Amino acid sequence: MNAMLLNHALRLLAQREHSEQELRRKLAAQFVSAATPADDEGAFTHARRGAKRTAAKSALQFSRSEWPATPEAFATELELVIAHCVQQKWLDDQRYAGMFLRSRSQKGYGPRRIEQELRQRGVPCEAITQALFDSDIDWSALAARVAERRFGSPLPTERLPRSKVIRFMLYRGFYQEDIQSLW
């Protein structure tokens, strides 16, 4: 198993939870940037000037000798690192889905929107379903809080302002039943 790849994975996982697909994508992007030849601007335009740029340059140059020689070898090493992280329970899609669900619901998003975002991040459907089932979130109460925060209390009952509330709540990912229960 490639130590540089594992260290980079651990550094990413120490910052926040990741789904397997997110971690795989970020590690693959690191390989692509490490495989790019070093020049003054090309591979390092994302680094800041001064010491940060120098540190990024030297770390990347140091890591080039550590990277697998071919993309196939890299793919094998990447899968070994992902499997090791899963085995050590550092990487868990179920835990990630639960954390993401709590975070996004606190920001006022509904279950449909959260489910869609988790799918886009590569979380398996079973993990999403289980996270939604395990959550103790009252989606109707959350919808009421979000609507009142956005539109004030009492909510408008006229046709046009009411349709504006409904569109906003659908955009936020709430089910039609939760939206209708607002009135």
Automatic annotation (TrEMBL):
<dbReference type="GO" id="GO:0005737">
    <property type="term" value="C:cytoplasm"/>
</dbReference>
<keyword id="KW-0963">Cytoplasm</keyword>
<dbReference type="GO" id="GO:0006282">
    <property type="term" value="P:regulation of DNA repair"/>
</dbReference>
<feature type="domain" description="RecX third three-helical">
    <location>
        <begin position="141"/>
        <end position="181"/>
    </location>
</feature>
<dbReference type="InterPro" id="IPR003783">
    <property type="entry name" value="Regulatory_RecX"/>
</dbReference>
<dbReference type="InterPro" id="IPR053926">
    <property type="entry name" value="RecX_HTH_1st"/>
</dbReference>
<dbReference type="Pfam" id="PF02631">
    <property type="entry name" value="RecX_HTH2"/>
</dbReference>
<dbReference type="InterPro" id="IPR053924">
    <property type="entry name" value="RecX_HTH_2nd"/>
</dbReference>
<dbReference type="Pfam" id="PF21981">
    <property type="entry name" value="RecX_HTH3"/>
</dbReference>
<dbReference type="InterPro" id="IPR036388">
    <property type="entry name" value="WH-like_DNA-bd_sf"/>
</dbReference>
<comment type="similarity">
    <text>Belongs to the RecX family.</text>
</comment>
<comment type="function">
    <text>Modulates RecA activity.</text>
</comment>
<dbReference type="Pfam" id="PF21982">
    <property type="entry name" value="RecX_HTH1"/>
</dbReference>
<protein>
    <recommendedName>
        <fullName>Regulatory protein RecX</fullName>
    </recommendedName>
</protein>
<feature type="domain" description="RecX second three-helical">
    <location>
        <begin position="92"/>
        <end position="132"/>
    </location>
</feature>
<dbReference type="InterPro" id="IPR053925">
    <property type="entry name" value="RecX_HTH_3rd"/>
</dbReference>
<feature type="domain" description="RecX first three-helical">
    <location>
        <begin position="7"/>
        <end position="29"/>
    </location>
</feature>
